[in-house]
Amino acid sequence: MEESRPAEPSPDELDDLALRAAGGDREALEDLLAAVQPRVRRLCGRMLLFPEDAEEAAQDALLLVATRIGSFAGRSRFTTWLHVVASNSARSTYRSLKRRAAERPTDELPATADPRTTSVIAGSRLDLLEALEVLAADRPELVEPLVLRDVQQLDYAEIARVLDIPLGTVKSRIHSARAAVRPLLRVTD
Fold it and tell me: pTM of the full predicted structure?
């Protein structure tokens, strides 16, 4: 009796596909991209709430996976590497949407959204994404650990592996990042 294949490959299967793709196996790359597409959409959707914006970020992330798979060395899980790529893609898409919105006349923006908490640009948490931009300007080394922990929900050990820094440094950076963004996230009346 043949067992049906699960909808989403296991982390071990993804690691195997990714290593084969990194080694130049074109078929493995195509299988990998097809397998991770739903996950990438979910990851981008955690930061960009409008489906169209999350889809744009997801497509950019998948393109990055395809073009940069050779840099995946297997030091961490592929899914951890993928979280970094998707998070960075979502933040990049947000910055692009923000630039495009700044170029539009203000009468084209909806007047009903609360600009302190919801982006009329991307339907995302404007306060969070703006806080990350402020943090990136002053302390860029704090942004990625914070996003990987608090947005993408990776554990500390995974973050340490993917960023190739000690666990204590990860915890310290996340603590510092939270302290830095906390006042930026407060909504005032």
Answer: 0.69
